[in-house]
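Design request, tokens follow.
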């Protein structure tokens, strides 16, 4: 075989291998590496420029932002011991990002749950109950909080979650972003605590995580959606912030770490929204539950009413916002509204500190309750 023929065969083989590497599948592109976290949970390391989030029609000319223009301040104080564990760590190769492998069932269920996902700018949602605090004194450029998560007994047709959120509304239009912990067996197929992100933009449709296009994953080690393992009765802690980038207008999701640099998970591009260009009119934090079709409401927080000590029920601490000038302030520096629609099943207690006493909790509150059959509509 001549040298020229050999070279031609090598070139053709390399071309074939390269084309195979970029063939699109139901997930996105062929992964460079995969991580199997549990039997039904696998993450694929996808080329950051070929991730499914960029397939949204509004992002055809979008240029990926690799990190926020200004980093969020790192944690300097610890609240309580963090007992969360995701057991198997994810570490995708440079240039790739972890994307949860979506099944058809997961995508279908996420669309169903997205249609009835409650947000405080929506009309009343039957079977939904809330406990939390919000401020409508915007514009705001961001919100952050530390909040506890607990293992709870939540039915297949129930949902219980705790989150931080930003949003703006005009007439019947709503732009909204939310992130936090959730237990949703109907969506994830188990009773574990999962991290989640949710958004609603120009087209009026909502979307969870990476079940549809829109969110741009940037971190190669922390995906937007991930299961955690919590022991019954032992809380875990999540420290999240959502903020609008000072230069691009994109909305970043950051996980604030203890004894380690913050992890900028990714962002929702500004192109997805038409009411968030100059900040959000409203920010808030709190717990939400959705009852089963029979009317049985699940527990919220850690399942206890906030009648005891600070660690005896669900808690949000160090709740802060970014004002229109990107200055960080406690949320209660602005006019706030307490949200509680079912005192029979859930509770809300705003934290207080004795005069001349210091606390590392900042603005905080306890919340939650056991739920039940007669929590109201």
């Amino acid at each position: 075989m001549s040298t020229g023929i050999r070279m031609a065969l090598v070139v053709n083989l390399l071309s074939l291998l390269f084309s195979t590497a970029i063939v699109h599948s139901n997930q996105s592109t062929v992964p460079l590496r995969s991580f199997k976290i549990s039997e039904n949970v696998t993450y694929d390391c996808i080329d950051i420029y070929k991730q499914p989030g960029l397939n949204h029609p509004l992002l055809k000319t979008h240029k990926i932002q690799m990190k926020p223009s200004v980093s969020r301040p790192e944690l300097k104080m610890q609240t309580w011991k963090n007992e969360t564990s995701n057991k198997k760590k994810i570490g995708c190769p440079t240039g790739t990002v972890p994307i949860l492998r979506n099944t058809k069932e997961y995508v279908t269920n996420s669309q169903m749950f997205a249609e009835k996902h409650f947000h405080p700018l929506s009309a009343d949602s039957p079977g939904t109950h809330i406990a939390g605090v919000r401020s409508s004194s915007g514009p705001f450029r961001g919100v952050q909080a530390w909040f506890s998560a607990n293992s709870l007994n939540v039915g297949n047709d129930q949902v219980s979650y705790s989150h931080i959120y930003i949003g703006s509304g005009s007439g019947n239009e709503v732009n909204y972003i939310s992130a936090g912990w959730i237990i949703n067996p109907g969506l994830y197929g188990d009773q574990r605590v999962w991290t989640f992100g949710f958004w609603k933009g120009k087209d009026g449709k909502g979307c969870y995580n990476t079940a549809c296009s829109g969110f741009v994953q940037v971190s190669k080690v922390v995906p937007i959606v991930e299961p955690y393992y919590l022991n019954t009765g032992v809380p875990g802690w999540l420290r999240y912030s959502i903020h609008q980038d000072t230069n691009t207008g994109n909305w970043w999701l950051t996980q604030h770490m203890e004894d380690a640099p913050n992890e900028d998970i990714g962002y929702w591009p500004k192109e997805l929204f038409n009411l968030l260009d100059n900040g959000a009119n409203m920010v808030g934090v709190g717990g939400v539950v959705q009852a089963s079709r029979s009317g049985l409401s699940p527990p919220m927080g850690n399942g206890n009413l906030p009648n005891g000590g600070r660690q005896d029920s669900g808690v949000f601490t160090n709740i802060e916002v970014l004002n229109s000038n990107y200055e960080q302030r406690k949320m209660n520096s602005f006019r706030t509204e307490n949200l509680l629609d079912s005192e029979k099943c859930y509770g809300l207690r705003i934290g207080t500190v004795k005069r001349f006493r210091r606390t590392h909790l900042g603005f905080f509150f306890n919340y939650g309750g056991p739920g039940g059959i007669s929590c109201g509509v």
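Comment from the thread starter after seeing the answer: thanks! The two ends are 80 Å apart (CA to CA).
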